[in-house]
Structures are given as C-alpha cells and as structure tokens.
Specification:
31% helix; 140 residues; 5 helices; single chain; 38% strand; alpha+beta
C-alpha cells in the first residue's frame, strides 16, 4: 500500500469513529426510555438540544457523555455539573528537513486530534436532584 493511501485510510477511519456517537445512535441503544418521553422532549433529544428540567438520562440521549463531571457545594446544597467540549477533529501538517555531513533527510507528517490539551468548552449543565437547573452555553 502506498503511504498516501495509508494516511487517507487512517484519516477516514478517525473521522468515522469521532462521529460515531449521535443522538440517533444513542436513542437506538435506549429505545424504551426514549419512547416513554413526550413528543416535544423526543424532538429536542433528536436535535441534540436540552432544556431546564431534563433528567440526566434525557441529557445523555441528547448530548452523550460529558467531557467531565464535578460537584459544586453551595448554601443551597450540592449541584452536579457536566461540562461539554467541542471535540471535533483538528488537523495539523508539518514538514521537516535535516542535513549534516554528507547526508540529508526530509519528512512530512499529518496528525489528527480529537480534543487536544485544552479543547473549547461549549456548554455546562448543572443538575440538582437529578434535573437540569442551569444551562450555560458559550457564545462564539
């Protein structure tokens, strides 16, 4: 197999696996729970949207697993916070060259990442007693 074909195959595979979890695939995994929700909730879940009052299961169907979870303690009690990041693929390209004595070499590289060191936070959801009580969405 030629090197370019290998690179293209790897990039294609990575793109397909990065996009594997969608609201429809999550709904298919939990069809019984999804069917029990009212039509307006089902419509929001299919669109990947959440609203105040959603349960954690509804949020998992709409958005999938959060990037991280933590708890916040206040006078009002304990709140669980879920954070979602933009974890789309990020591409980079590099070229390097080296020479010394009578030898020289060069190389080209292509890399793909699904997050990186500090991915952009896009949404935070706060839960109290198992229901969404706050939604923070980052404006771009």
């Amino acid at each position: 197999m030629r090197p370019l074909s290998v690179v293209l195959a790897l990039v294609s595979f990575a793109l397909l696996t990065a996009c594997a979890s969608t609201p429809e695939s999550r709904i298919a995994d939990r069809r019984g729970a999804f069917n029990a929700y009212p039509a307006e909730v089902q419509q929001k879940i299919r669109a990947g949207q959440v609203e105040i009052g959603f349960t954690d299961e509804m949020v998992l169907l709409a958005l999938g697993e959060p990037s991280r979870r933590f708890t916040r303690q206040t006078e009002a009690g304990e709140t669980e916070v879920w954070v979602y990041h933009d974890n789309g693929p990020q591409f980079s390209f590099g070229f390097g060259m080296n020479s010394g004595n009578r030898h020289s070499s060069s190389g080209v590289g292509l890399a793909m990442s699904t997050g990186g060191y500090d991915p952009d936070e896009r949404m935070r959801l706060a839960f109290h007693a198992g229901r969404v009580t706050e939604i923070d969405v980052r404006q771009r």
